[in-house]
Specification:
This protein is an alpha+beta fold and 265 residues long. The chain contains nine helices and twelve strands. Strand 6 and strand 7 form a beta hairpin. The longest helix has 15 residues. Bound molecules: nickel (II) ion.
Length: 265
């Protein structure tokens, strides 16, 4: 599977779960705007064969290099950022939930779910959740511990968000202007930590929509609408130390952007 195939599978599954992405894309196209992806974000569990290193390898094997490692202690996550060494493909941000932070009984239940025979890394290349759907009860108990872990148990390894590069826009010059246009179109933005995270001084500004709600059929038969995926926007600034655009991520901003899929903010 080529890198193009991987990004195509990620985009196809993402857009099927995130009507908001289609809406943003149509809106930008209608203005004659370029659609340049700053980064794609994936989520995973730190379990055998699915952890951060396994997913990172998928990209480093095809020319990506690590640009940072991060820890989000309050959300019990660690993460890695990667850039395409040729600068041709979007950056990739992979975060990973620390399963040993769960109460033992719930941890065993989660491990049994994600270590099922279906739990193969190759499955997410096909755009499928690499484990069985949890019951609503398991999902709800996970949610009491971590919105992230509950979300991931349902949606699996997929593009949690695609991020539009604000730098590539021609008719919109700042992320605040873009946010205003989105709000006027009725788009709900993630206000956690302020609508715009970061600053020009920190070399990166980010904002995001709240995730769409989609119906999900749990393994117990119960159907509930829950938040799926969202759209993010990023404006990067030149790093005076290198004379090039800042290539990394700001942990404080990422910490709040994770909350775009929270059922309760
Ligand atoms: Ni992001």
């Amino acid at each position: 599977m080529t890198l193009d195939d991987i990004f195509r599978v990620l985009w196809d599954r993402y857009r099927s779960m995130a009507p908001i992405a289609q809406q943003c894309r149509r809106m930008l196209h209608a203005r004659g705007e370029a659609w340049v992806v700053d980064h794609v974000a994936l989520r995973t569990f730190d379990t055998e064969g699915l952890g951060l290193d396994s997913l990172t390898r998928v990209f480093t094997q095809v020319g990506y290099v690590e640009t940072g490692r991060y820890r989000f202690s309050s959300k019990r996550l660690h993460a890695v950022s990667l850039s395409d060494s040729r600068g041709e493909r979007p950056r990739v941000f992979i975060s990973c939930f620390e399963t040993n932070s769960l109460p033992e009984e719930l941890r065993q239940e989660l491990l049994a779910l994600v270590s099922s025979p279906e739990g193969e890394l190759r499955d997410w290349f096909r755009g499928e959740r690499p484990w069985r759907m949890p019951s609503f009860e398991t999902y709800a108990r996970l949610r009491e511990e971590s919105e992230y872990a509950a979300w991931l148990s349902v949606f699996g390894i997929c593009a949690n968000h695609f991020t539009v590069a604000v730098n590539a826009l021609r008719t919109i010059s700042t992320i605040r202007e873009l946010n205003r246009i989105l709000r006027e179109a009725g788009v709900e933005l993630n206000e956690a930590g302020g609508e715009v995270k970061g600053s020009p001084e920190l070399l990166l500004e980010q904002s995001s929509t709240m995730a769409d709600r989609v119906p999900v059929s749990f393994s117990c038969g119960r159907v509930e609408e829950i938040r799926s995926c969202y759209m993010e926007f990023a404006a990067r600034y030149e790093d005076p130390k290198t004379g090039t655009l800042f290539d990394g991520f700001l942990p404080e901003s990422a910490d709040r952007i994770f909350e775009s899929t929270d059922e309760v903010q």
